[in-house]
Amino acid sequence: MEKLTKRRLDALKPSKVGVEGSEQFLWDGELRGFGVRVSAAGLKSFIVQYRTPEGRHRRRVIGRYGLMTVEQARDAARDILMAVAKGCDPEEAATRTDDLTIGAVCDWYLDEAEAGRILGKRRRPIKASTLAMDRSRIDAHIKPLLGKRIINTLKLGDIEGAQADIAAGKTSKARVGSRGGATTGGEGVAARTMSTLHSILEHAVRLGKITSNPAKGVRRLASTPRDRRLSRAEIEKLGKAMRIAEQDGEHPTGLAAIRFFLMTGLRRMEGLALERAWLHDEEGSIRFPDTKSGAQTRVIGRAAVDLLLAQPQAGSRFFFPADWGEGHFVGIVRVLDRLCAMARLEDVTPHTLRHTFASVAGDLGFSELTIAALLGHAARGVTQRYIHIDEALRLAADRVADEMADILDGKAAAARPSRRGALQTQNNRGQTRERGGQNIDAERL
């Protein structure tokens, strides 16, 4: 193992793994425990890793490469390791000081959560996907605005002020390079970031890292729910654009993924990260080892199953593999944007496809309970827990998938009116006849 040098760090590139939040580490060959961590976005931070006198593993961030040199970071790591050798835990010592910052608590949270020592929902270790999102919000919004603020001096107004800054776009950044996304602001992003900060500080209070949570009582911005869905006419436009784009050489994996989402209503990461081993062809279902609602069996239509089986193997465990590396495809947003620009559709996201699936299922007359089961919503009662084994649900999945495929291909008949619409039409006709009768009687008089 070689010694860390500026040349080695400059040559170190982010790992090309198609999983959000992936990181890589490079350790020093001279000072054991000293190294550098490279985030998926290419951010390089010096770290030191050690074991406390009680046998607990610690990993501390020393500083960011570029703001400090390799030798400066090595000296700081050596001081920490010398303190550990003398029986002192620098992390515990930092807890007893009065100058603990928001940034330090966020680093502590990420290290503890990654080690599985912080429990989240359902009293289970926090999921890797959740940690990736937490890290993104910390790096993009929390640290730039509050990272250097001392917790003991922080007021509720300071935190709500940071929320207002995020909503106003003060932490927004344009997309850099050909991979990754832009950092956006807005009320929804601001509210979710405040939820993350509040949760981190609550964990710190519960585990004795800090004495009180300065974010307790913060009023989070109320964002307008997004309920955009495509009408049948818009689905037809999108399908036509997909056929034209396919002839023009549009990304085949992106086109297949968009069609699959419309036919199944899966969440974006559920579909993109779908592994071949999870599909059970004969029963027409996907057995997710983990989802937003825990482990789950999801029924999908036969047409959607056939679409998955038609995807090239490409030596990947994913149905929608990345163009390079071992990860899954992540470029669905850009493909969808190009299609919508061609079809002149606005405000369409991958989640819009999920709403559209539910809308078509509702138009076909399926109940809210059935649609909730098809979408994989968390079970709220004993009946819903067992609905996934019901044959009627398989028929519903087939019906919706076939209908969606027909609309996309321009083969669907006009939508039949719902029962409520039919009753309204019948009542209107009756009222017309009644008014007509009155007119006739008036003429007779």
From TrEMBL:
Keywords noted in UniProt? DNA integration, DNA recombination, DNA-binding
The record places domain Tyr recombinase at: 225-399
Q: Which species?
A: Azorhizobium caulinodans (strain ATCC 43989 / DSM 5975 / JCM 20966 / LMG 6465 / NBRC 14845 / NCIMB 13405 / ORS 571)
State where composition is biased (Basic and acidic residues): 431-445
Disordered: where is this region?
412-445
Q: Which family does it belong to?
A: Belongs to the 'phage' integrase family.
Official protein name in the record: Putative integrase protein
Instruction: State one molecular function term (GO).
Output: DNA binding
Q: Does the keyword DNA-binding apply?
A: yes
Example GO BP:
DNA integration
Entry annotated with the keyword DNA-binding:
yes
Do you know which Pfam families this protein is assigned to? Arm-DNA-bind_3 (PF13356), Phage_integrase (PF00589)
